[in-house]
Amino acid sequence: MTRILVISDTHARSMSELPQELVEALAEGDWVVHCGDFTSIDVLMGLRQISRRFVAVYGNVDPREIREELPQKATFEVEGKRIGVIHPPWGGAPFGIEERIAGEFSDVDVILFGHTHDITQKEIGGVLFLNPGQAYPAFRTPASMAILTIGQEGIDVEIRTFE
Question: If I label 144, which of 23, 27, 78, 130 is the partner at 20 to 30 A Cα–Cα?
Fold first, then answer.
């Protein structure tokens, strides 16, 4: 059984701006996936340091130094499940985002994505689309993270929020 901790849209200058409880949880995952919009290279480097295995993509507001470090999209495999990761670099309105990003991948079981800051979990055409929301608390919205547990029984999703 493998635990993948998924975050997106940190929009932070440093790791200290993220909820401490979220950072501690990330250090316990088998994998950490960041779906783009770090906004700071310090957050990227900090997450790489605390993660056992790390996968990330750049987002539409990430600066050049992050875009030079990360791909626009990534694919990896865990326990026989193929997982795609993307943050639509074209930005734009969130309406119909799943259909637009579906065209970026073929033969995947899960697509992890960011950009909308809204927690999304839906299945379309046999593919699980999962957006973990935003990894920082703002206004009345808490920080959030998705936890994918992949094993013999399939894929289980848990959403955890942090004030």
Answer: 78
End-to-end CA distance of the chain: 28
How far is the C-alpha of 73 from the C-alpha of 2, rounded, in Å? Answer: 22
pTM: 0.95
Beta strand pairing status for 143-151 and 127-132?
A: unpaired
Q: Show the tokens assigned to 59.
A: 């987002």
pLDDT in tens, 81-127: 999 999 987 777 777 889 899 999 999 999 999 999 999 999 999 99
Strands 81-86 and 54-56: unpaired
Query: For the chain, how many structural domains are there in total?
Result: 1
CATH number of the domain encompassing residue 34 = 3.60.21.10
